[in-house]
Amino acid sequence: MRATLGKNQRLKSSKQIREIFSGRKSVAAPPLRILWSETPGEGNPLAAFFVPKKYYRHAVDRNRIKRLMREVYRTARHRYVGGYPHRFAFIFLWTGHEVPELATVKSRMDKAFARWREEIDRKNEICE
């Protein structure tokens, strides 16, 4: 399977983004926070990447961090979210104060998705 992050895999709907932010489903591996929701239908998970202007005043820094998060998610998406019958929509929020290296972003995302999988598995156990 190709590790791409195409147009159909990006979360662009402002309505969905508002619902995710108001839904309060999140896990954190500071400074990375993942907010998510289950979306109807099947297919690839949707993703959006946010870096607050409050912490990073320069657009160059914000764009660099978003690029790093997209790269890590793109290359490991199937390992992170594979195997679940539901479709998910994710928002990745980076709230640190320094521009990270790729290895830092990768370790934080690995840790956050491990926590996310634990929470989803726990929720599925309760439902069964």
Can you give a write-up of this model?
- There is one protein chain.
- With 128 residues, the chain is an alpha+beta fold.
- It has helices at 14-23, 59-81, 102-127; strands at residues 26-29, 32-39, 46-50, 87-94.
- A hairpin with a 2-residue loop joins strand 1 (26-29) and strand 2.
- It starts with 13 loop residues before the first helix and ends with a helix.
Question: Helical region count?
Answer: 3
Overall structural class, as computed from helix and strand content, comes to: alpha+beta
| CA-CA gap between termini | 31 Å
- Overall shape: it is globular
Radius of gyration from CA coordinates: 14 Å
Question: Roughly what is the average pLDDT, rounded to an integer?
Answer: 90
Largest sheet: 4 strands, mixed
**Percent of residues in helices:** 40-55%
Report the portion of residues in β strands. 15-25%
Number of strands: 4
Low-confidence stretches: none
- Which strand order spans the largest sheet, edge to edge or round the barrel? 1-2-4-3
Could you provide a short overview of the structure?
Helices cover 46% and strands 20% of the residues. With 128 residues, it is α+β, with helices and mostly antiparallel strands.
Q: How does the SSE layout of this entry go?
A:
Layout: H1 14-23, E1 26-29, E2 32-39, E3 46-50, H2 59-81, E4 87-94, H3 102-127
Parallel strand pairs: 3-4
Antiparallel strand pairs: 1-2, 2-4
